[in-house]
Design a protein that fits this description.
By secondary structure, the chain is an alpha/beta fold. The chain has two domains: 325 residues, Alpha-Beta Barrel (TIM Barrel); 48 residues, no CATH class. It has 18 helices and nine strands. Strands 1, 2, 3, 4, 5, 6, 7, 8 and 9 form a nine-stranded parallel sheet that branches. Helix 5 packs across helix 7, helix 14 packs across helix 15 and helix 16 crosses helix 17. The N and C termini lie far apart (59 Å). Zinc ion (ZN) binds next to loops. The site of zinc ion has 5 residues, from loops.
Amino acid sequence: MKRRAQLSVILALFAPLSLFLLNANCRMPQNSETKNMPVNTASPANQERDALSIHRRAIAIDMHADTTQRMVDENIDLSQRLADGHLDTVRMKDGALDAQFFSIWVEPQLYGSGGQSASKRADVQIEAVRALAEKHPETWEVATSAGDIRRIAEAGKLAALMGLEGGYAIDEKLENVERYYRMGVRYMSPAWSVSTSWAGSSGDEAGRTRGLNDFGKEVIREMNRLGMMIDVSHVSDKAFWDIVNTSTKPIIATHSNARAIANVPRNLDDEMIRALAKTGGVACVLFYPEFLEPGWSEKKKQVDAEIAPLVQRASNAEQGSIARKKMARDRVRIEEYARRLPPVTVSRIVDHIDHIVKLVGINHVGVGSDFDGIQAVPTDLTNVADLPNLTGELLKRGYTEEDIHKILGGNILRVMEAVERK
Ligand SMILES: [Zn+2]
């Protein structure tokens, strides 16, 4: 109000000059250069507003964040706006994200070493997610179904879900799959960067020849029976194909991109994306430049070699647990990657989405940021509060509101409902 009043005084005093200036600012595209361009009536400001309102109307689900380990190891208070990291309650609301799958990640060193330690490490993280909802019932609620997510989002609250990353925690016991299902876990990836005895990983030598053994196939069938989604992110190609051939339910990749753009073992090739879509599943793109940008991985290897002494020094200086040592190493990596590696933007994420959509259509793509688990982020998607920038870029590329709602969460809700059905 105040500003408008001031403006009319100025207009009255300097009317001729002001009108001239206004006309100059509102010039219409009349010259021959702009005549044949597609008509875009929306100003950048309007487009931004549209993106935000489309984004807010969607049920947005992030399939993967490693914030759980921060809750346990750093004892962070997720209800506050945090100065570091990628995700907290305040920034999640700013970014209009409705549901977060918290990764229950277990260090592979704990697997097989005396039986119970991997399960214990998982249990502590599950407890931390549950405690978040118990301490802040006005904001958070634990969700275990698509119906829960819809209801919680409708109430304007945030849904906390859980997925086991790497099958280390089930400790080679089939009954533990049900135990984790009952604790609220709704997806599991059979391996992280290190192969288990029963499932190959994309991250080590063993995975090159290892798929699923008989026990691995039993685990998949048990997950199908219980209604737990199977996550193929991190598994070896051979394990991927064994999973596709064993599962009777849709399969998801919670945080993997397209190998056709960034050729790394962690990404999916076109044949895999087609097979995953054929199960009715969804591939969720992640925000890590190494898996987004062609050539970034090679450059990173070079930087890793250069900063190895720095990283080692930071690790040695940290006297705490193996988790705290990892945090110390990651702090150095975050700083050095930002300084030494090429920047990546949200536009590259949408290149991966475009690729998947061109291959298999709009119904098989989603989002899995990997926030708090990655040591570099796109310059315009530095934390969860920036999530509407992804919607803005999708809108710019011509995706409709309906398309965008599917990408942000609708496709995953469909898979959850299909997997829940007995
Ligand atoms: Zn991961």
